[in-house]
């Protein structure tokens, strides 16, 4: 699904009107009609049908007037409250306002005029939020903020036009105060504010409506890819019926140290569950016995131990030897932050030419010597930081990362010529040539240790199976979250463990597959 900023949507509107001769009035009519259809689909069968429409002074309000007219045509009782004076409404919105019976319209430019609105809401079937859309420019204050409070406490289903009022369409952030909607109908393409948190949560169920914008305007607009179920399904490749393990790739995972053998085991076992043909997990020799127990399908490879259960430079030669011919190499989960381990990671990342996935303590090692990324031999490097690791890599604070996740991920990806997968609620995947994908799966139950190790294993396995790097990251991030969603559907969100997500991966693949189940004769 395509996602754009509010500013891009305004350019798309402009191009549609100027280059294709489709008027703003037509777009507004279509927008209002699509919203009305969605309302009728949801509430058309209720016996008492009263809509209270709260409109702002701009075109979002204009959509609200169209909805008012069309719902009245369907026999609804409609009341429109406009948070502005009558002289403030202009353009297409004014034309649609004139089409309404003046008796149903009340202007509420100041707080004192809001009591009628509150009274009217008491017996409403639903409230339509047409206060502010992509034109929101600043923090919501004054009478707009009070109306948002009224909407949020009224206890009625809330239908948001384009985006919940108060959400910044370019970031999903709440500008001062925002409406909490049950459902949002957005137009032509989703806005970032519809899919990024907290906007995504405040919008409720999202529908993207076709308002007659030419397909080329939508496809050619600068934007982002939202990886939802349909998009992930398109990425999943069927496996050849004659496939053998040699076709499915051999991945090497270099991981683990004393106290963190679980990270190595989860990465290795997740690579198995994500379909790698063969998995070798390279660990410090003193941990081999426990690794043999924690992994069954994966082969463990004991490496020279620097001391009590961590790797140092003595492991460099054996790693280079065993990595030869591997389809992918993952390095970092639980590998420790010992100085000698960090030096080893830096040398290995510098010298290996296999596709690399670098996570966790591996990223810490790179933060201490970022130049390695510029001098490395491998043409495919995927970094999978969480916001704290990203902050270290970029030399900024975690708060700064969270302020502009897409921008920071994009910048670092271009700077180091790597695919940057920035984890979090709505994982961002950035490529050096400027592509950005946003993952749509996952749930708060994933906020627990080990989830990143599972993702590393999934990515290592997908790359080993021959997926192109960007496709592997999009599909891998989706499967990771989708598997957790399947676990949550069964067990609930709280208490989900990373191993649960690992073990549900085959079900996630199965649910995503377009293939019929194999028939056995
Ligand atoms: N041709 C078009 O441009 C179309 C626009 N459409 C609708 O129009 C919306 C965008 O319309 P507009 O650009 O008129 O803007 P909005 O209707 O989103 O904003 C309304 C007005 O609020 C003001 N404003 C900004 N921040 C504010 C704040 N914090 N507090 C109070 N007022 C604030 C702005 O100055 C603007 O005049 C879209 O979200 C969509 O709903 C649709 O009708 C489809 C076609
Ligand atoms: K709105």
Automatic annotation (TrEMBL):
Record bears the keyword NADP: yes
Any one Gene Ontology BP term: nicotinamide nucleotide metabolic process
Positions of the YjeF N-terminal domain: 9-219
Superkingdom of source: Bacteria
Catalytic activity entry: (6R)-NADPHX = (6S)-NADPHX; (6R)-NADHX = (6S)-NADHX; (6S)-NADPHX + ADP = AMP + phosphate + NADPH + H(+); (6S)-NADHX + ADP = AMP + phosphate + NADH + H(+)
Gene3D superfamilies named in the record: 3.40.1190.20, YjeF N-terminal domain
Positions that bind (6S)-NADPHX: 59-63, 133-139, 144, 162, 263, 334, 386, 453
CDD domains: YXKO-related
Cofactor: K(+); Mg(2+)
UniProt KW keywords: ATP-binding, Isomerase, Kinase, Lyase, Metal-binding, Multifunctional enzyme, NAD, NADP, Nucleotide-binding, Potassium, Transferase
Domain YjeF C-terminal: 228-512
Entry EC number(s): 4.2.1.136, 5.1.99.6
UniProt: AMP binding residues: 423-427, 452
InterPro entries for the chain: Carbohydrate_kinase_pred_CS, CARKD, Nnr, Ribokinase-like, YjeF_N_dom, YjeF_N_dom_sf
Binding site for K(+): 60, 129, 165
Cofactor binding, note field: Binds 1 potassium ion per subunit.
Quaternary data: Homotetramer.
Family per similarity comment: Belongs to the NnrE/AIBP family. In the C-terminal section; belongs to the NnrD/CARKD family.
The name this protein goes by in its record: Bifunctional NAD(P)H-hydrate repair enzyme
Organism encoding this protein: Geotalea uraniireducens (strain Rf4)
């Amino acid at each position: 699904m395509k996602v754009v900023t509010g500013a891009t949507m305004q350019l798309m509107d402009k191009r549609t009107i100027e280059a294709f001769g489709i008027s703003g009035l037509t777009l507004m009519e279509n927008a209002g009609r699509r919203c009305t259809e969605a309302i009728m689909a949801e509430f058309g069968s209720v016996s008492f049908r009263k809509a209270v429409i709260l409109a702002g002074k701009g075109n979002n309000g204009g959509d609200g007037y169209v909805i008012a007219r069309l719902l009245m045509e369907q026999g609804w009782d409609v009341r429109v409250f406009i948070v502005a004076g009558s002289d403030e409404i202009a353009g297409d919105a004014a034309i649609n306002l004139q089409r309404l019976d003046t008796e149903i319209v009340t202007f509420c430019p100041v707080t004192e005029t809001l009591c009628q609105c509150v009274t009217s809401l008491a017996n409403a079937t639903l409230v339509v939020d047409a206060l502010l859309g992509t034109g929101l420019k600043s923090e919501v204050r004054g009478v707009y903020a009070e109306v948002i409070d009224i909407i949020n406490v009224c206890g009625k289903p809330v239908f948001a036009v384009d985006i919940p009022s108060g959400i910044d369409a370019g970031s999903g952030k709440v500008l001062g105060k925002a409406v909490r909607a049950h459902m949002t109908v957005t137009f032509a393409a989703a806005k970032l504010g519809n899919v990024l948190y907290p906007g995504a949560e405040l919008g409720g169920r999202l529908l993207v409506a076709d308002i007659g914008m030419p397909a080329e305007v939508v496809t050619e607009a600068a934007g982002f890819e939202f990886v939802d179920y349909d998009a992930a399904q398109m990425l999943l490749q069927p496996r050849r019926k004659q496939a053998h393990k040699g076709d499915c790739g051999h991945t090497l995972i270099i991981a683990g140290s004393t106290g963190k053998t679980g990270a190595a085991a989860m990465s290795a076992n997740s690579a198995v569950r994500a379909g790698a043909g063969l998995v070798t997990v390279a660990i410090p020799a003193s941990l081999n016995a426990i690794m043999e127990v924690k992994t069954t399908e994966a082969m463990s490879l004991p490496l020279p131990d620097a001391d009590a259960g961590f790797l140092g430079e003595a492991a460099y030669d054996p790693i280079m030897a065993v990595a030869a011919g591997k389809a992918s190499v993952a390095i970092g989960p639980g590998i420790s932050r010992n100085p000698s381990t960090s030096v080893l990671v830096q040398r290995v990342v510098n010298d290996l030419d296999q596709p690399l996935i670098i996570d966790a303590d591996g990223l810490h090692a790179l933060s201490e010597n970022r130049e390695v990324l510029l001098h490395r031999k491998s043409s495919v490097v995927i970094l999978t930081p969480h916001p704290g690791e990203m902050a270290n890599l970029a030399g900024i604070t975690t708060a700064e990362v969270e302020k502009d996740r897409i921008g920071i991920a994009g910048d670092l990806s271009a700077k180091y010529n790597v695919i940057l997968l920035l984890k979090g609620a709505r994982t961002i995947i950035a490529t050096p040539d400027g592509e950005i994908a946003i993952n749509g799966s996952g749930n708060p139950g994933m906020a627990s240790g080990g989830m990143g190790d599972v993702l590393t294993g999934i990515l290592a396995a997908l790359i080993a199976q021959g997926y192109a790097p960007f496709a592997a990251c999009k599909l891998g991030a989706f499967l990771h979250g989708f598997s957790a969603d399947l676990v949550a559907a069964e067990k609930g969100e709280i208490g989900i463990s990373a191993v649960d997500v690992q073990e549900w991966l085959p079900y996630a693949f199965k649910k995503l597959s377009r293939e019929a189940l194999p028939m056995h004769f």
